[in-house]
Amino acid sequence: MASTYVFNRLIVLCIAVFGFGVIYGQPYQVGHVTKTFTDAARSNRSVPVEIFYPADVAGDNKPFAAAYPGKAPVISFGHGFVMTYDAYANIRDAVVANGYIIAFPTTEGSFSPSHSEFGKDLAFVLREVTALGAQTTSVLYGKTDTNNCVMGHSMGGGAAFLARSYDASIKAMVTFAAAETTPSAISAASSVKAPSLVFAGENDCVTAPSTNQRPMYDALTAACKHYITIKGGSHCQMAGASTTCSFGEATCTPAPGITRAAQHATINKYLIPWLNYTLKGNCPAGTAFETDLAADGAVTYAKNCTLCSPTGVGVDDPEKGVSVYPNPASDKIVVRTDGKATSRIFISQVAGRVVYDGHFIGSLAIPSSSFPAGVYLYQISDGEANTVVGRLVISH
């Protein structure tokens, strides 16, 4: 297993370096552990899960990467219909290499899956894997962040919408060629307020974007959402080679218009910086995401926000040395200034009620989980006759 991980990591690094020119963060090896969780709230339902995490040496039960800074965001990923978790090595290796923990529940793999139960499994696994960070016997001890994301492909993508509708504490969502489910993922989207990234393939003949991903995106009520269509991209090429997926795709048209490697490179080009901005508050990553999106002839897109831009919802003022991020924010806002004097920040609701008034030097992390979701105004005076005002979105 270790040799397979090393080989896959080399492929991911080659794609990252030569496919789009930049790697976001320290490239880690892929550690792996298998767990089975029991959900007492669902008649002791057994939920087996494959967990992958940053390590210094690839393989099973290896220690967490020694030099990893702080805690890693947790991702749960839902597989497609009768597909297995190992079909998603492309996504697994890319996110782990960039400092994320990703968990794949292996439930609902039959020809008669329960979409509802699968959605609940995705939300449950996020909570349980995060809880491993408090267990001294776990390889994840002290390493799980409360910032998290639910993901999925095809059926698993639809189940990701269900998961977020079941658990409003999930911080972010990413889907790949998401399929309509029972109950309806399109209907569930209306309750999803978390930052969301929806991928679609232009040549997807299995879950056509016009009747699946686009209605889901349109129904989302998130203050910040992006929809990316990969030109020539197909349903099955969101993942690695899968006999079951390819069998279904071979019965319909159009056929894929690009290679699997090209489709994976495009996914990673946007997935990694979006995660780095949304879950880690990395403003340069958000700017790179938006810059590439605007210039990329390989995709089309729709959005209702701009990550980390002074002209959009994002709020940076580089000329005055001030950054406020992530934006939209969920449970934490980070404020940075270049000045060495004491700065003061006011955050108020649009109606005028001040919700935060604080002083700091250099940087400040403001807990925002208790702020009601909505649009806020901020004013920062840096003690050197500079004042910056802007708009901030809180999205839980």
Uncertain spans: 1-25, 310-316
CATH-scheme architecture of the largest domain: 3-Layer(aba) Sandwich
Number of domains: 2
Q: If you compute it from the alpha carbons, what radius of gyration comes out, rounded to the nearest whole angstrom? A: 21 Å
**N-to-C series of helices and strands:** HEEEEHEHEHEHEHEHHHEEEEEEEEE
Largest sheet: 10 strands, mixed
Q: Helix proportion of residues, in percent?
A: 25-40%
By helix and strand content, what is the structural category?
Answer: alpha/beta
| CATH topology call of the largest domain | Rossmann fold
Question: What's the pLDDT, averaged over the residues?
Answer: 87
Q: Could you give the distance between the termini?
A: 39 Å
CATH superfamily of the largest domain: Alpha/Beta hydrolase fold, catalytic domain
> Strand-residue fraction?
25-35%
CATH class of the largest domain: Alpha Beta
Adjacency order of strands in the biggest sheet: 3-1-2-5-4-6-7-8-9-10
How many beta-strand runs? Answer: 18
- Number of helical stretches of at least 4 residues: 9
Shape: globular
Provide keyphrases for this structure:
396 residues, alpha/beta, Rossmann fold, Immunoglobulin-like, 10-stranded mixed beta sheet, 4-stranded antiparallel beta sheet, 28% helix, globular, disordered N terminus
